[in-house]
Amino acid sequence: MNAPRRVPDPPAWSKELFSVGITGTNGKTTTAAWVAASLRRLARRAGAGPVARATTVGFFLDDEPLETEKSYAGFVDAMQACFERGGRHAAIEMTSEALANGFARAWPCNVGVFTNLSHDHLDAHGSPEHYLASKAQLFVSLAPGGSAVLNAADPVFALLSEVIPAGVKVLSYAVPSRGAVAGTPDVVATAVDVSWSGTRLRCAVRDAASGLPSELRVRAIGEVYAENALAAFLGAVAAGVSPSDAAAALAEEPPPPGRFEVVNEKPYVVIDYAHSPDALARTVQTARKLADAAGGEVFVVFGAGGNRDKAKRAPMGEAARPANHVILTTDNARDEDPAEIARAIAEGLRGHASVRTELDREKAIGLALKAARENDVVLIAGKGHETEQRIGSETRTFSDVEVAKRAFAAR
Prior knowledge:
Helix content: 25-40%
Number of strands: 19
Largest sheet: 11 strands, mixed
Mean pLDDT: 93
CATH superfamily of the largest domain: Mur-like, catalytic domain
Distance between the termini: 39 Å
Number of helices: 14
Number of domains: 2
Strand content: 15-25%
CATH class of the largest domain: Alpha Beta
Structural class: alpha/beta
CATH topology of the largest domain: UDP-N-acetylmuramoyl-L-alanine:D-glutamate ligase
CATH architecture of the largest domain: 3-Layer(aba) Sandwich
Radius of gyration: 21 Å
């Protein structure tokens, strides 16, 4: 959520909530959900009330959704509801725009968690440097005695490490597929096994006496969730959750809606929120591996948002190259011509053997499902959990999940 332009003082009672803030380009919502699931175990042991969770999906007390507006005022209302019901813990997704507006000062956190940084939101920030500086505000604002959880395989690890205030403990993790690993992280994923039942990580732990496990499992599907799992795990441990409780919570908690969400089998139909080049590339790679294991092909249906970062469109096309078949369609076109957006994405797919454009998103999904065979994977990317589509001045009801289910039923 976006903080107001004028940063307010945090409410006096906010100090009673132990807050874990999560930022990064991709994986914030999933990581926040897993941190919240771990904090629930800590809260139950302490006899505390519900855990607050604030993400782009919505505001929650444990798993109970709250009907509050997605604004800073709505956020404060949600946190106050948690406090008044005896809750003392919160997991908060923090966007770059909110942090740029001073959200980390309006709501200081005890623990800051960083997922990763890649190309996104440059329309709002103007440059990669401003984008990173905005993310860094979460860590700059941590108070002595707090903890920072950083991704040691992300290229910005060294820069973020430099801004951590004195007296803040730094924990780090790495999944080497992200990039070169800096230093000696507290935990590194040495192997990641992905199947339709979830993702398993085998881990190397720096300090054998720390109690960190040699294996973690999550129900989410994809190597990127190994990264999110380690971030959430260390964030929870930094908040006081025991390693065994954190590992158990991660193993049990489902991924949030629209995050490699399987809505059909044979063929597998997957809905994913991936809308940046890095996220789309990793999601397509997961679909590719799973399809290859069954001898199937991969279909990808996606577009890009209008009035947003135009420079990422061709790289998104490039990210989809491992798919056998690509159908370009309309996302939230807003005030732009959907055909122009599709043409920009297609620049990154020049030479691909199977690319077509169908601007009607529902028809595009139907085309992919009609062509898919039993062992194929159909990945519908970009909108995930969203239930609306914005084209011009019109906002229409549109859910990839519901459209896919209808299209499959009509095959």
